[in-house]
Design brief:
Layout (H helix, E strand, L loop, with lengths): L16 H10 E3 H9 L1 H9 L8 H21 L9 H15 L8 H18 L10 E8 L8 E10 L3 E8 L5 H7 L1 H15 L5 E8 L5 E7 L4 H20 L16 H5 L3
Parallel strand pairs: 1-3, 4-5
Antiparallel strand pairs: 2-3, 3-4, 5-6
Length: 275
């Protein structure tokens, strides 16, 4: 595995919904599987119709924090100095640059959103279990695994960080302290995808998995959840979920799934008019 950044692949401007549906059948990712499990109609709006919606304030803050953490991880991988005193300047740069790419939906005060995200990031660097001299095995690496032998499409994904020794790390910026049991349950699918991708790319088994939750409450927190390597049962569960996704696409089974998650959905109005 090599350190890299996420590739940008422009979708053909002439692609039709049917063409995009065919493309979705060829590959699968953790984000799409999670979206499929949450609401199939939302996946249809986002990936088949490609109805672009501006990022929310929460999404923007998360992207900026990830960008700063990526810079930090890449500096350690390259054995280059990373000035902690420059964190705020780097954060400000990404905050402004990413706003130039697309308009942000500011539901609350932008200054407050920015301040809480920056505080959470600064707290992370004070409390992180990752040493400054620890060289990563991989940073923001794009990987894929051919699952044809299982009768499944190619699995693709981008792993935030692989620590020395093959420990997979995923960073998350959240607004409240996560429940330990719920964290394990709700992130199982994503972490299992990363394990399959890592094993396929390296021929080795990951040494473990970590979730680093940057909690941007009034008093910021860092919650690190350490998990053992993926078990055979979890791999089987993942493959069953991919199979369900695959069969659903074949049936074009794009139906809404009303629930608490609808409150923050960008496709709420479109969903209400679905028939």
């Amino acid at each position: 595995m090599i350190a890299t950044t996420e590739p940008t692949v422009a979708a053909p401007q002439t692609a039709t919904p049917q063409t995009r549906l065919m493309e979705l059948k060829q590959t699968v990712s953790a984000s799409r599987l999670n979206l499929w499990a949450t609401c199939r109609l939302k996946l249809f709006f986002r990936h088949v119709l490609r109805q672009e919606k501006p990022p929310t304030a929460v999404m923007h803050a998360g992207r900026v924090v990830h960008a700063v953490l990526q810079s930090w991880n890449l500096a350690r991988w390259r054995k280059e100095p990373f000035q902690m005193a420059a964190i705020k300047s780097l954060f400000d740069l990404w905050w402004n640059t990413m706003q130039q790419e697309t308009a942000i939906v500011w539901e609350d005060n932008e200054a407050e959103e920015k301040s809480s995200a920056l505080r959470a990031l600064e707290h992370y660097f004070l409390e992180t279990p990752i040493r400054a001299d620890e060289k990563p095995q991989a940073v923001e690496v794009a990987v894929e695994a051919d699952l044809a032998k299982h009768g499944l499409p190619r699995l693709i994904g981008i792993i935030d960080l692989v620590r020395a020794g093959g420990r997979i790390v995923d960073f998350k910026l959240v607004g409240k302290t996560p429940d330990p049991e719920m964290v394990v349950h709700t992130n199982e699918l994503q972490l299992s995808c990363y394990s399959v991708l890592f094993r396929d790319a390296t021929g080795q088994k990951e040494s473990g998995l970590e979730l680093h939750h940057l909690v941007r409450t009034k008093s910021p927190k860092l919650i690190v959840t350490s998990l053992p390597p993926m078990t055979q049962d979890k791999e089987s569960r993942l493959f069953k979920q991919i199979e369900s996704y695959q069969r659903g696409l074949e049936r074009e089974d794009f139906v809404p799934s009303p629930g608490f998650h609808c409150a923050g959905c960008e496709f709420f109005d479109a969903c209400r008019h679905w028939s």
